Amino acid sequence: MNRPDRTIEAVGTAELMRQMGQAARAASREIALATLAQKNEALLAASKAIRSSSSAILAANSKDVEAARIRGTTGAFIDRLTLNDSRIAAIGRSLEEIAALKDPVGSVLAKWQRPNGLVIERVRVPLGVIGIIYESRPNVTADAGALCLKSGNAAILRGGSESQHSSRAIHACLVEGLKAAGLPETAIQLVPTTDREAVGHMLKGLDGAIDVIVPRGGKSLVARVQEEARVPVFAHLEGICHTYVDKDADLEMAREIVLNAKLRRTGICGATETLLVDRAAPEHYLPVLVKALLDAGCAVRGDEATQQADSRATPATEEDWATEYLDAIISVKLVDGVGGAIDHIARYGSQHTDAIVTNNATAAEEFLRRVDSAIVLHNASTQFADGGEFGFGAEIGIATGKMHARGPVGVEQLTSFKYVVHGAGQVRPV
Amino acid sequence: MNRPDRTIEAVGTAELMRQMGQAARAASREIALATLAQKNEALLAASKAIRSSSSAILAANSKDVEAARIRGTTGAFIDRLTLNDSRIAAIGRSLEEIAALKDPVGSVLAKWQRPNGLVIERVRVPLGVIGIIYESRPNVTADAGALCLKSGNAAILRGGSESQHSSRAIHACLVEGLKAAGLPETAIQLVPTTDREAVGHMLKGLDGAIDVIVPRGGKSLVARVQEEARVPVFAHLEGICHTYVDKDADLEMAREIVLNAKLRRTGICGATETLLVDRAAPEHYLPVLVKALLDAGCAVRGDEATQQADSRATPATEEDWATEYLDAIISVKLVDGVGGAIDHIARYGSQHTDAIVTNNATAAEEFLRRVDSAIVLHNASTQFADGGEFGFGAEIGIATGKMHARGPVGVEQLTSFKYVVHGAGQVRPV
Q1: A188 lies in a domain?
Q2: Which of A141, A318, B315, B360 is 20 to 30 A off residue B391, Cα-Cα?
């Protein structure tokens, strides 16, 4: 298999992307049939290459970091961008962990026999070609490429311009792994240009070559992808997650869950953004919860009752209920029982992850049934919204659509299925 | 729940459709929680209403038929459009059959415990609101509405203008069923206008109110829907299905399968359009198969070998390999073994349904693994591509995408899932 002609100057972005699409489609047919041993050999060889290339990767990364500094970028961004020995080791380890996962391809999901003797199997198959469009974090190059490979898919990776040198150095290691295992090196391609036109072509599907787009990045990236994509997208636009504390909650459990759900990490999509408290709960519940949050350094924006509960709380506006802070800020509101919580979540939520804390089984059941989110939890922190915590191994993201992949997207969610029908000459009666 | 203001003259198409979307979204929350008994009560009451309203339905239908005649429409179309007592009885029976299906909602698809004690369940839930856009056949109104209801979804039905009176009469029976069961009558709405603008609004999703669009009709309708829809679509554009006869096929079995696959019904999407014969097969295979087709009244368009096999065969052009005839016409070609068949199907197929006839297990296995279609069959007719034949009960269509619903779309495929997590106060470690 020939690599596409990467001389962008020679062919232009449109033609380059078309060639990458064709190469990915061809590679997808081979990678779909690769054995587990081959795929794991590629992953382990790539991991080895990452470790042995650490000085080259660090050199490439320092170019990206230097460029970011010159542009005057802020501290948190620089921190996400910067690699060091331990982060490179973590990238290598992540590839090994993906190698250790079960093969998601080929398993028989269901099998039944029809009265006419036909045996029908529903068999897991790869999706085909996955386009990943991501920003800043260089490790996504390795994780996304590896998850696609493990699930038998070809990948077209389009990293952000900010991490382009790092991504190229990491991508070279993935290609080394593919070569070592005798797999087509075009099974994981990195778009060699950072011009935005390339993203536009990917969103249109490269003449049918791309089956799914996965965006990894901020809200504006995801919004653009969801708006423009002509192929299915696995993504969530935002995670406006709620924790509802019922009148029948254990207060100490509620306090621990709320603090963890909001503050363990404020920047992840499973972080709680709104605390809803049952109006019928004992009077001290709201002040205790609000005080715990404020004492832990969290800003509280609340309704009247919340402001009365603690003078440090400030008023919440209508906009607050619809805001994903991704920061140490929480909105707090009294609601009329589990029904009130469900209504609030239906109105302001993002169908991502929502939790109820209660010892009342009926209230829990009602909440779990009626809240229309990808993940609903009873007596646990919303920060468990994570493929690793679900036992899926690494995840490529979390999806909130109703299609196919909903919730954490791991290797199994990067597959589709086909029906395989075994006959003995059956024809269909008229 | 109030029905939207259906006075289109008063509010205009855009506002009417917006109101229908809001009403459907509200109804979807109730219908999602309806018990199996309630849903079945509604279906059986609707079936009863269909039978007892047969004269009203026939009167409405005769208006549609009369209008079609005045437009000078052709025989086959009139036949599809025309209802009579036995067709009305069949519509009623179909509702009863859907009532007899298992409840697809609420079943636990998977359940596992994490080391921290969290119990995670994957539970089947309805998709939400399904928009169905269809042409001519009046029975789709009943079937589509009933399948959505059984799967706990609200439906917005937009039938073709040709069958508008029939559809309204049938829809009235469905609403009667919903009322009898105490379910919101807006759970199944029929768009009261036949202007094309309404379709455009549906394809944009009615401000997020529609979760999935299902088009039922000809290729131009499906193409428009796939091109314009901003929400997921369950559909297939065409069914260019292949039957490949391997050198190790039993000729008599092959002959029966090919005749059935092509000619049992030529107008359905699972009909074979191209016969591929192994170049290494015994010399008499091709002539026997071609003669059988020609003798049965099928036109044969073939390559050189096919034309030599029978003088009645005419030459196939490049376009023939990519054509879904939906008629008594077949294209025929010699290929180089199972690999040649796989390559031809990858190039010209539509990822719908393809079959191999062979007694060679290795060849069958290779074909079944490498052909990337929703349904692949071994020693059976492609006309088995059907939800009823798969044991799904009625189907709303067949999908060829890689997402979610692939192959026949029955009640189970009209659902999604959510993760329900049961904890005992777990918080996520830092």
Answers
A1: yes
A2: B360
CB contact under 8 A, A430 and B264: yes
For the cut 50, the answer to whether the pLDDT of residue B265 exceeds it is yes
**Contact across the interface for A421 and B380, Cβ inside 8 Å:** yes
| Same domain as B300, residue B366 | yes
User: Which segment, A101-115, B93-107, B330-344, is predicted with the most confidence on average?
Assistant: B330-344
As beta bridge partners, residue A418 has A123
Pairwise CB contact (< 8 Å): B418 & A406: yes
Residues A230 and A307 both lie in one domain = no
Q: Could you say which of A264, A390, A426 has the minimum Cβ distance to residue B380?
A: A426
Q: Is the model's pLDDT at B2 over the cut of 50?
A: no
Identify whether A274 is part of a domain: yes
Q: What does the alpha-carbon distance between residue A181 and residue A184 come to, in Å, rounded to a whole number? A: 9
**What is the per-residue DSSP string for A256-325?**
HHHHHHHHS-TTSTTSEEEEEEETTS-TTHHHHHHHHHHHTT-EEEE-HHHHHH-TT-EEPPHHHHT---
> pTM (2 decimals)?
0.86
Range A291-311 average pLDDT: 97
Closest listed residue to residue A330, CA positions, set A269, A270, A273, A257: A273
Q: Residue A2 — pLDDT band, cuts 50, 70, 90?
A: very low
Q: How far is B119 from chain A (nearest CA, A)?
A: 10
Same domain, B85 and B67: yes
* CATH number assigned to the domain comprising residue B94: 3.40.605.10
Q: C-alpha angle B328/B332/B335, rounded to 5°?
A: 155
Distance CA A359, CA A283 (A): 18
* A46: confidence class by pLDDT, cuts 50, 70, 90: very high
Structural domains of chain B, count:
2
Alpha carbon distance B50, A254 (integer Å): 54
Q: Which residue of B has its CA nearest to A31?
A: B370
Q: Do B53 and B187 fall within a single domain?
A: yes
ipTM score of complex: 0.87
State which residue of chain B sits closest to A211, comparing Cα positions. B402
Q: Per residue in B108-121, is it b (16+ CB within 10 Å) or e — as a string?
A: eeeeeeeeeebebb
pLDDT tens figures, A156-170: 999 988 999 999 999
pLDDT attached to residue A73: 84
A306 and A158 part of one domain: no
Distance CA A427, CA A40 (A): 42
Residue B425 lies in a domain: no
The reply to whether A212 and A276 lie within a common domain is no
In a domain, A176, yes or no: yes
Q: How confident is the model at residue A3 (pLDDT cuts 50, 70, 90)?
A: low
**Looking at beta carbons, which residues of chain B come within 8 Å of A372?**
29, 32, 125, 128, 418
pLDDT at B31 over 80: yes
CA distance B383 to B362: 24
Question: Would the CB atoms of A418 and B372 count as touching at under 8 Å?
Answer: yes
Nearest C-alpha in B relative to A372: B418
Q: Do B125 and A372 touch (CB under 8 A)?
A: yes
Quote the radius of gyration of chain B (alpha carbons, Å): 24
Q: Is the dihedral of CA A80, A85, A91, A93 positive or negative?
A: negative
Claim to verify: residue A165 and residue A296 sit in the same structural domain: no
Q: What is residue B19's predicted lDDT score, i.e. its pLDDT?
A: 95
Domain span at B264: 241-390
CB distance B428–A390 less than 8 Å?
no
Which pLDDT belongs to residue B1?
40
